[in-house]
Amino acid sequence: MIRRVLQFARSRLSKLGYAVHPIDENFESYQVALYKSLAMTNVFDVGANVGKVAERYRNLFPSSNLTLIEPIPEFAESLRQNFAGAKAVQAPLSDKNGTAEFNLAFGSGLLKATKGVP
């Protein structure tokens, strides 16, 4: 049954001009090639945390301007130290003005933070 559904989907997508490729061990290299072809000049990592995704962006787009936005002060400071040449901003972001409350879990502890957003 699943095979027939996949064949049907592949057939319909093919008629629309799309090529369907199975995800295999080469998928990541295809993805990297696609990203590198995009010639990004500005890359934003919102909620950068400790920088795992930012590191990938830096490798994919070495000549881009990298802006890292992280609300947790300690993480933002770590980003400043570990990503020379990038702009690390300690700030929360939202689609609304006001005050937000969020919980931070560190190991077994829980820290509650409230930050006003002008």
Describe, in short, the structure shown.
This protein is 36% helix and 28% strand. With 118 residues, it is of the alpha/beta class.
Basic shape: elongated
Question: Residue ranges: pLDDT <50 for 5 or more in a row?
Answer: 109-118
Largest sheet: 3 strands, parallel
For the biggest β-sheet, the strand order reads 1-2-3
Mean of pLDDT = 80
- Protein structure class: alpha/beta
Relative strand content: 25-35%
Explain what this protein looks like in three dimensions.
This protein is an alpha/beta fold. The protein has a domain at 1-37. The chain has helices spanning 2-15, 27-36, 52-60, 73-82, and strands at residues 42-46, 65-70, 87-90, 98-106, 109-117. The strands form 2 sheets. A 3-stranded parallel sheet has the order 1-2-3. It has a two-stranded antiparallel ribbon with strand order 4-5. The radius of gyration is 20 Å and the shape is elongated. 11% of the residues are buried.
